[in-house]
Design goal:
With about 280 residues, this protein is an alpha+beta fold. It has helices at about 35-40, 80-95, 170-180, 220-230, 270-279, and strands at about 10-15, 20-25, 50-55, 65-70, 75, 100-105, 105-115, 120, 150-155, 160-165, 190-200, 200-210, 210-215, 235-240, 245-250, 255-260, 265-270. The chain folds into 2 domains: about 10-125 and about 260-279, Roll (Diaminopimelate Epimerase, Chain A, domain 1), CATH 3.10.310; about 150-255, Diaminopimelate Epimerase, Chain A, domain 1, CATH 3.10.310.10. The protein has a 17-stranded mixed beta sheet that branches.
């Protein structure tokens, strides 16, 4: 039975390096999520607030769960690395298992306990062909015909990575907002600005499509690491300093592995009258 909007719905508030999420567990009872409801929950003044919302559902193909992601503007996201790590940690704590398999639009993603309170997830192979990212027409994805020659990468969602001398000096809100809607990206794009600050060590800041400036982004971290390795700036295993903290990315033969901390901040329920008012 699908939960009606007047029913009480439980949620969890989680974050990975300040990239924050509202997580709804619909394994026992389906939840009638809509873009409008997601947008209302994402309002940081009148709702709960989040960068992404994730719905956990049963997986029909033997995986531990299926995940669906929504951005703060109510649009859907094909991938969300930090939310995937947070939910993987929650499910591993729940079951006692050392690893889980989670199905997203990206496919089946394996996550595991990395020790020291860290969680790793394999975000799958990067998409490097212009059709898969996707871009509007054929171009060299290593150096796009855009001022600054950014690199395009797909990680289940599209990315545009600029390598700059000083990521701190970039007007992230202005440049990120402008690039999100660039005509080369028919589905809009996440935008990163990264600087090399040491051997296999990057400073990266991110603008997420449908959200804006965020403290961290897992898929953006993966895309930036892949782009840096393709351009010969780093090896395949790198550390990224984000606004919200540090994350490790390792581009292996079986996919791009991301390792970092997670936090389950609190749990709560939505008041039925509020749900009724916003739907």
């Amino acid at each position: 039975m699908t939960a009606q909007v007047t029913d009480t719905i439980a949620f969890m508030k989680m974050h990975g390096l300040g990239n924050d999420f509202v997580v709804l567990d619909a394994r026992a009872r389906p939840i009638a999520m809509t873009p409008e409801l997601a947008q209302a929950i994402g309002d940081r003044h009148r709702g709960v607030g989040f960068d992404q919302l994730a719905v956990i559902e049963p997986s029909p193909d033997g995986a531990d769960a299926r995940l669906t992601f929504y951005n703060a503007d109510g649009s859907t996201a094909g991938a969300c690395g930090n939310a995937t790590r947070c939910i993987a940690r929650h499910l591993m704590d729940e079951s006692g298992a050392p690893d889980v398999v989670l199905v997203t639009e990206r496919g089946a993603l394996t996550a595991c306990d990395a020790g020291d309170g860290l969680t790793s997830v394999n975000m799958g192979p990067p998409q490097l062909d212009w059709r898969d990212i996707p871009l509007s027409h054929e171009v060299d994805t290593l150096a796009l015909p855009i001022d600054g020659a950014p690199t395009a990468t797909g990680m289940g969602n599209p990315h545009c990575t600029f390598f700059v001398d000083d990521a701190e000096a970039v007007d992230l809100e202005a440049r990120g907002a402008a690039m999100e809607h660039h005509p080369l990206y028919p589905e809009r794009t996440n935008v990163q600005f990264a600087s090399l600050i040491g051997e296999n060590h990057l400073r990266m800041r991110v603008w997420e499509r449908g959200v804006g400036v965020t403290l961290a982004s897992g898929s953006s971290s993966c895309a930036t690491a892949v782009a840096a390795a393709r351009r010969g700036l780093t090896g395949r295993a790198v550390t990224l300093d984000l606004d919200g903290g540090q994350i490790r990315i390792d581009w292996r033969e079986d996919g791009v592995w991301m390792t970092g901390p997670t936090a389950h901040v609190f749990s709560g329920t939505f008041a039925p009258k509020w749900l009724e008012a916003v739907t």
